TrEMBL record:
Its cofactor is pyridoxal 5'-phosphate. It holds the Pfam family Aminotran_1_2. This is Unannotated protein. The lineage of its organism: unclassified sequences, metagenomes, ecological metagenomes. GO terms for biological process: amino acid metabolic process. The keyword Transferase applies. Keywords: Aminotransferase, Pyridoxal phosphate, Transferase. Residues 36-394 form the Aminotransferase class I/classII large domain. It comes from freshwater metagenome. InterPro entries: Aminotransferase_I/II_large (IPR004839), AspAT/PAT-like (IPR050596), NHTrfase_class1_PyrdxlP-BS (IPR004838), PyrdxlP-dep_Trfase (IPR015424), PyrdxlP-dep_Trfase_major (IPR015421), PyrdxlP-dep_Trfase_small (IPR015422). One of its GO terms (molecular function) is pyridoxal phosphate binding.
């Protein structure tokens, strides 16, 4: 056996998560004593709310939680997810159409694995979260990018989507609010895109993980609420990670038509079986318990959002649209490329990210992780003081 075929071609083709890679490098430098400020990780800096922790403590002491549950999840959690889906997405479904997964990533992977056959095309509005391409590729699908830049506030149009559609198009990926841009489609835009997808018989995978994190009075309208006729060809992906500061608890879910959820459940029964019972009990407390903690975290994110947009836009060469959701900004940094900073002339956002990490000790994720070069993603889900200090370092570097 040669070194070339020790690992399968399918797995060899998978790229490491760029966001986790940058975050790991930042943490490595921090451990070595360097005062790196990292905007890389897409997770809240808050502790999980206390009532959720208490539910987990009670659960871990109960022997019934020391054993398997149905692979699809605890019945009571599936009921709670169905209730949340009706409340926030406008879709009424029975608990049997809910599948609890090991985080949102598993839900994304299983959605594409269940829907795609080799060669099926998936239209992907770009910039996109770094995991989507790998999940599509693993399922044998073909990604078709549709790019919208800062001039469009990162929102694709129906005309762009139609130009990308072919006879092999099977799925539209729809994400609002977006990672990495924080862009949120208006109700009118969601309806127009949904009606286009419905008219052409397309499936929709809609990632709603940031659904409850919106600002300025904006609501993230679900595509199945805007176009109810799409419900039989839509898979909703969601989870507790971002809204409740539970990234490490690993609880996500899929909601969709009965046959798709049954098939995805069959896959999960072999892939991972059930999610940790203790984590499921914690997620149940998150969805059914007091929600004031969400409002408090959202207020902090909003404050940080305003600060980082204002301060980044003080740097000549950076254009930062104001995000309406999630906890990211995605500035266009093409105005900084091709110029010399500290003796280095970056020509790509990847080179620019390396430059600011070495010279300003600030970690951000380059646009190459999410599509075309020329952008940086900054998460503002970190403390107020390091957020401001990090931007001030950039202001000094690019003065």
């Amino acid at each position: 056996m040669t070194s070339a075929n020790r690992v399968s071609q399918r797995i060899s083709a998978i790229a490491e998560s760029a966001t986790l890679k940058v975050d790991a490098k930042a943490k490595e430098l921090q451990a070595a004593g360097r005062p790196v400020i990292s905007y890389a990780a897409g997770e809240p800096d808050f502790a999980t709310p206390e009532h959720i922790i208490e539910a987990a403590i009670v659960a871990v002491r109960d022997p019934k939680n020391h054993h398997y549950t149905p692979a699809a999840g605890l019945p009571e959690l599936r009921e709670a997810i169905a209730a949340k889906t009706k409340r926030d997405s406008g879709l009424e479904i029975p608990a049997s159409q809910v599948l609890v997964t090991n985080g949102g990533k598993q839900a994304v992977y299983q959605a594409f694995a269940t829907l795609l056959d080799p060669g099926d095309e998936v239209i992907v509005p770009t910039p996109y979260w770094t995991t989507y391409p790998e999940a599509i590729k693993l399922a044998g699908g073909v990604q078709v990018d549709v790019f919208a830049g800062a001039d469009q506030e990162y929102l694709v149009t129906v005309d762009q989507l139609e130009a990308a559609r072919t006879s092999r198009t099977k799925v539209l990926l729809f994400v609002s609010p977006s990672n990495p841009t924080g862009a949120v489609y208006s109700p009118e835009q969601v309806r127009a895109i949904g009606e286009w997808a419905e008219a052409h018989g397309l499936w929709v995978v809609s990632d709603e993980i940031y659904q409850n994190l919106t600002y300025d009075g904006v609501s993230a309208v679900s595509i199945v609420d805007a176009v109810p006729a799409l419900a039989d060809r839509t898979v909703l992906v969601n989870g507790v990670a971002k809204t409740y500061a539970m990234t490490g608890w690993r609880v996500g879910w899929m909601v969709g038509p009965a046959d798709v959820i049954k098939a995805a459940g069959n896959l999960q029964s072999h892939l991972s079986s059930n999610v940790s019972n203790v984590s499921q009990r914690a997620a149940l407390a998150a969805l059914t318990g007091p929600q004031d903690c969400v409002a408090e975290m959202l207020a902090a994110f909003d404050r940080r959002r305003r600060v980082i947009v204002s301060e980044l836009n003080k740097i000549p060469g950076i254009v930062t649209p104001t995000p309406r959701g999630a906890f990211y900004v995605y500035p266009d940094v093409t105005g900084l490329l091709g110029k010399t900073w500290g003796g280095i002339t970056p020509t790509t956002s990847l080179e620019l990210a390396d430059l600011i990490l070495e010279q300003a000790e600030v970690a951000a994720v380059p646009g190459e992780a999410f599509g075309p070069s020329g952008f940086l993603r900054f998460s503002y889900a970190l403390g107020d003081e390091p957020l401001r200090e990090g931007v001030q370092r950039l202001q000094k570097l690019f003065a």
